[in-house]
Amino acid sequence: MRTERLAADAASIARAAEILRRGGLVAFPTETVYGLGARADDARAARGIFEAKGRPPGNPLIVHVPDVASARALADGWPADAERLAQAMWPGPLTLIVARRPDRVAGVVAAGGPTVAIRVPVHPIARALLDAVGLPIAAPSANRSTEISPTTAEHVEKSLGGRIDAILDGGPTAVGIESTIVDVTRSPARVLRPGHVTAEAIAALVPVQAAAGLVTAPAERAPSPGTHARHYAPRAQVALVPAHAVRGELDRAAQAGSRAGAVEYGSRTATGPHAELLPGDPAGYAAALYAALHRLEDAGCDVIVIAAVPEDPAWDAVRDRLTRASATP
Ligand code: TXA
Ligand code: MG
């Protein structure tokens, strides 16, 4: 399959909408990461997402809609907590889990489950595309399963080129990590995946159950099927170490004959030929993280040493992604 590369102008958005309407696969920018879209009401189209990504069928997709009314139309009942969070945070990087209307969202999108994940993105190209299609669009991150999420059209091309119909290029994404996921099917709500919208901000609006602790979760059923430990993983082996131990870890890797890269942040000087120095604030760090990991992977690093970030709650979303990237498979 030839993958069309589309600039994000009006004609391209119309073209992308046409491909989606006839059941094709289009990658598009959102404020978090690029998504791989297909019709959420069409099982055959949605199945194409799982095929292109090599995604296990048990891992459900997020459905993207242009506004709160369209979200309500997909839900079997709309809890008061959903309304509060939607009014306060949408459009934006927040995903809500609600009961699914089976006549509106294909079972394959929800991995056969009774719930559906819904979000209203704020990115202007995503919004223009959703308006033009006029249908709910299922879209996971636009990468092969277990690879690093894409924050540029080039990342999408590298991972899915030749497997999907088109890529809408909207430049680098601003948030850089995936949306916060909140389950509002029961009260108190549960934060299933931390993100740019903090647990604190959620808790200021609705009652929230104490941190589910995804990475270190007790052996109960994983609350979000795709949040198993090794999900945001580069191909390289990742070591997450205290900042002061980065140098030593790089030396050890080099002595073992590895090509080692480093990810540090703030005012530290990045160490060695394959070193990425990220901003010292959580939002700036998150925006830059995946591009840094993609660069180190492209440079052929087989070991990536990452300086651990602060324990502060403001770093929860970043720490979650780093812990997953460094989890042993
Ligand atoms: O920012 C984002 O959320 C991006 C952009 C493209 O919107 N999308 C994204 O999708 O990160 P994906 O598929 O990479 O991650 C979706 C997560 C998975 O962990 C999946 O298991 C979870 O959402 N999920 C989807 N539907 C669910 C449901 N009904 N119940 C619980 N978790 C669900
Ligand atoms: Mg993903």
Automatic annotation (TrEMBL):
Pfam families: Sua5_C, Sua5_yciO_yrdC
PROSITE patterns: YRDC
Main location: cytoplasm
Gene Ontology cellular component list: cytoplasm
Locations listed in the record: Cytoplasm
Domain YrdC-like: 10-197
Sites where the protein binds L-threonine: 32, 64, 119, 139, 179
Keyword terms of this UniProt record: ATP-binding, Cytoplasm, Nucleotide-binding, Nucleotidyltransferase, Transferase, tRNA processing
GO terms, biological process: regulation of translational fidelity; tRNA processing
Catalytic activity: L-threonine + hydrogencarbonate + ATP = L-threonylcarbamoyladenylate + diphosphate + H2O
UniProt protein name: Threonylcarbamoyl-AMP synthase
Species of origin: Sorangium cellulosum (strain So ce56) (Polyangium cellulosum (strain So ce56))
Role of this protein: Required for the formation of a threonylcarbamoyl group on adenosine at position 37 (t(6)A37) in tRNAs that read codons beginning with adenine.
EC number from the UniProt entry: 2.7.7.87
Residues the record lists as binding ATP: 55, 59, 115, 141, 149, 193, 232
InterPro entries for the chain: DHBP_synth_RibB-like_a/b_dom, Sua5-like_dom, Sua5/YwlC_C, Sua5_C, T(6)A37_SUA5, TC-AMP_synthase_SUA5
